[in-house]
Amino acid sequence: MKILIRLVLLISFVLGSGWLPSMNTQAKTLPDSPADATQAAASNLIPSQPPGAVLPTIGLSASHGQLGESIMVSGQGVSPYPGVRVAWLLSDTTLTAAVATVAANNAYSATITVPADAAPGPARVCAAVTGTDLAGFACADFTIDLPAPGSVQGTIPLTVTNAPTNISAPQAITATVKLYDQQGKVIGSAPIQNDGSFNIASVPPGSYTAGVAGIVPVLIVTKTVSVQSAQLSNVNFTPFTQCYAASVVAVRITPTGKPTSQFDFGTYLSFWPFSPDPKPVFEADLQVVSGADVSGVAFRLTDVDGNTTIIGFPGDPVVATTYAITRTIGDWLPGINLLKIEPSVTYPGHPGCYVGTSATRRVNVIQHPMTPTALQHNNDRRIHDTKWDGSRYTFSINMPDNYSSFDIISPPPFFQNGEQLLPAMFPKPAPSFQYLGLSENKHGTAFSMSGTIDLDGKVTFTAMRGRTGLFALSQRGINGEHAFLPESVEGLPALAALPAVIDQVEQRSGLLASSAFPPTFNSLRDLNYSFGPETLFPFDVEVPIFEGPVASFFGVLNAKVSVNTGISGEVVMQGTIWPLAPDLELSARARVSPRVDVNASGDLLGLFSVGVTSRTEGTIIVPAKVSSRDNRLAWLEDPCMRLQVLLYFWMSVTVAQWETDPITMIDYTNGACPAARLASAPGVAPAQPRLFSAPNVISGPGGRMLSVYVEDTSRPTRPIACPK
Predict the structure, then answer these.
(1) Greater pLDDT, 377 or 652
(2) Rounded to the nearest 5°, which phi and psi values hold at 77?
(3) Torsional class of 581: left (φ above 0), alpha (ψ -120 to 50), beta (otherwise)
(4) d(CA 625, CA 174)
């Protein structure tokens, strides 16, 4: 009997230790392509139609139009609802345009305007009745056209009328009239003719600064010009009344963000005292009097502490009279820095006219929000989580920072003060059981996020992934990655963090208030996103391994075995991430419950049967926590290991049956698992084998035998067929 018990236990755990192929899956919650993502986003903006939706009709007076144009929307409402709401569906925004009253005949109409800030391209106009939760949206397609361009013409003065009397006027013109936007970008240009006239065609509607760049007979004052769609605008320049030999017409930084009323080029992050190489190009367009000599242009910076330094002095223009330098912004002090561009010029024969007019621009720099966190355990390294890619900042957070190579089976462990924190082991040390040997449980979890920070102040998440692995009873149970946000889509809606910082910067007293590290960056560090709880990798599988006779002795004595296995489990993950701190609080609760039933029995002529059943059940719950805001960094919260092995002996004679009370071979509990104990405690003895004895036996030459048995077909069909 002792040998039989050991055999049953051995079979049970050999089969149980390899209960299923490893659960190595990758779940996705969003579409895999930008096109799919756009369609999904659009479908979510207008709510899905409720059952029994009430729908109006909709018609448009035009299927396309330009910004600011009006169109008529009309249709039939639904009685007895009093109105119809008309809305624009623009990319990822739903904008109510009008609420129309329904007439007695249920007709409605409204005049709406194409939003002035809408992007050209496809859009939709939708309508829904008011006054009911069953309102559905009826939509019509609309195309927003590019506005027709305008044009600009005018003249520049060629004489010294109204100019200082000590200036002679050489008649030399090698200059261009340029239209600049607020950031100094050239929107349109045209050369100046010998008579001083110019004509700039195909100018997008908008407000611009018109300036003359190049060599002119008289320095010209810049003008503001408003260009209307399909209209001609006139600009008549006037000369400076002061004695200048050169003037800075325009300043730009490439790349640049959206300007505000307080500063000119968007918002840059300061990596001070580190400089990971954000290097924009600074350019200045000059206007120079014919005969004057420009020896160079000084680019001076006055930081928030009032210190002024020359950050560049190009002696030669890169083209015509455009001077440029490349300068790292990343090591500027946070705050509003003043950039002054001043030409160095001489004007032979005119000693009072050698100074050129300068230009001053405000460059907003905020403190880089990221600092080394406890989870980045190599604390002597520089901040590499945020980088400048030439047009925007990109950030990525890997927690732990070996995330990219994290593997639960052979992990590069995460240590803190010499102690391995991930993957976490429970119990510690691992228990060892007779017939089983070492039963080791480990759980590791990691999280990765990436995103962008535009100079316009928009923060966007572009990828979020969680990874978890569970090593249960010395076998891999779960090893998978879940994409909360796949890298192939543009990501979650942008969080407007930087505008709040900008507002606070603007409220400071004076542009040059002394403060190297203004506290306003904390609002960036407080930007957070919470997710979950979300169930990952759920599974519940029953697998019958074998059921049938294994030996027959002349049909008199028959031996039968049945083996059934099952496993269930999941990982529930939730947390909060502060992407620009960076900080993370992550909870991943992993559970695996394997179960194995092994029946071994023998019967004599189908009249007398005896057998033993081994039932093995286990539950491993390993809730891993990771937090950069906790001194423990990573730990297990109320882990549980429950393992129970019971033996049942039974005997039957014809229709009579006897069963013994179960014998507990292993009953092991460690940790906080009262619910697991209740769930895994077998309340009913396992079913006995469902095969009847073999009534017919045929013996052949050489001693080979064929036995025929009867299968109980009342049980559900199994995926693994029993032998016949």
Answers:
(1) 652
(2) -80, -170
(3) alpha
(4) 69
Peptide bond into 255 cis (omega under 30): yes
- Contact partners, residue 552, CB within 8 Å, separation at least 6: 558, 559, 694, 697, 705, 707
* The total number of residues written for the chain in this structure: 724
The whole-chain average pLDDT of the chain stands at 75
Specify whether the CB–CB gap between 211 and 250 falls below 8 A.
yes
pLDDT band at residue 450 using 50, 70 and 90 as cut-offs? confident
Specify the amino acid at residue 236.
N
SS3 347: coil
pLDDT at 439: 83
| CA 720/CA 543 separation, integer angstroms | 8
Phi-psi region of 390 (alpha: psi -120 to 50; beta: other; left: phi over 0): left
Query: pLDDT tens-digit profile of 126-152?
Result: 999 988 878 888 999 999 998 889 999
Considering only CA atoms, which of 146, 143, 147 is closest in space to residue 62?
143
Do β-strands 335-346 and 293-302 pair in parallel, antiparallel, or remain unpaired? antiparallel
* Distance separating alpha carbons of residues 689 and 562, to the nearest angstrom: 7
Token pair in block for residue 527 = 């930007």
Helix (H) / strand (E) containing 249: strand 246-254
Question: Do residues 570 and 540 lie in contact, with contact meaning Cβ atoms separated by under 8 Å?
Answer: no
CB of 25 closer than 8 Å to CB of 480:
yes
What is the C-alpha to C-alpha distance for residues 22 and 478, in angstroms, rounded to an integer?
6
Q: Whole-model pTM?
A: 0.65
Helix, strand, coil percentages in the chain from 3-state DSSP, rounded to 5: 10, 50, 40
Most confident of 84-88, 169-173, 564-568, 686-690: 84-88
Q: What is the pLDDT of residues 461-494, one digit of tens each?
A: 777 777 787 777 777 667 777 777 655 444 444 4
Give the DSSP letter string of 375-421: TS--TTS---SEEE-SSSEEEEEEESTTGGG--SSS---EEETTEEE
Question: Is 20's pLDDT higher than 50?
Answer: no
Task: Output the pLDDT for position 687.
Answer: 55
Q: How many angstroms from the chain centroid is the CA of residue 270?
A: 23
β-pairing, 475-485 vs 26-28, is parallel
State both tokens at 184. Answer: 């100094």
Q: Looking at residues 97-119, what average pLDDT do you find?
A: 91
